[in-house]
């Protein structure tokens, strides 16, 4: 069964593309028709692509991998923040920090700086600073929080990127391509799908459209996380059941070793007695 249906997508306005004069010819396979100078996206292809992307995302979540969600356009910001947070994934909704992927160690240093400032606040060092220094550090912390606060838990490069409007986020897409990180993207009729690994043809300007697509993707990821959790519980339960068995085996091995040692000692004693008698 599909994760989204035709009617859902139609109601959310996922089928509305851009003006014909703004189109990218590479999107031709995903365009159904033109109406009043506007391209209409083939929603049957959107349904198929959403299912394909959702399945891959589910497997990534099941393996415990991180997916970075990127959307800096006003219409998508809050939706992406809410949906990504619901599955515990990092996201970028402010300006994309150039080199975030290609120069990841520098980004990690900036995140550590936030942690250092927090530590200063807790241990009382912050209170010993002058009023001006306090103000500078507070502003710096706020700026870092706004830009990098949502990726604090991203300790290594993400396993994939999910991008809303691949044209606007072309720097993020380029960095991911350069590092070989798979890119999932909502691609409108004015964008180039060639650099996107998992294309989801859809209207990337409407909040409802973004919400429907992301809802299906995050639902699949949540299923993957639940399956991972269930497998972990089963493994732990199996481990607990095997513990007594391992204990019994260990005790039997110790007992066998002890018996063998006792037999050897008895044999040595008999041999010694025999030699003693022969000498007499």
From TrEMBL:
Residues 229-280 are annotated as: Disordered. One of its GO terms (cellular component) is cytosolic small ribosomal subunit. PROSITE patterns: RIBOSOMAL_S2_1, RIBOSOMAL_S2_2. The keyword Ribonucleoprotein applies. Keywords: Ribonucleoprotein, Ribosomal protein. It comes from the Bacteria. InterPro entries: Ribosomal_uS2 (IPR001865), Ribosomal_uS2_bac/mit/plastid (IPR005706), Ribosomal_uS2_CS (IPR018130), Ribosomal_uS2_flav_dom_sf (IPR023591). One of its GO terms (biological process) is translation. The keyword Lipid metabolism does not apply. Residues 254-263 have a biased composition (Basic and acidic residues). GO terms for molecular function: structural constituent of ribosome. Belongs to the universal ribosomal protein uS2 family. This is Small ribosomal subunit protein uS2. It comes from Parabacteroides acidifaciens. The gene is rpsB.
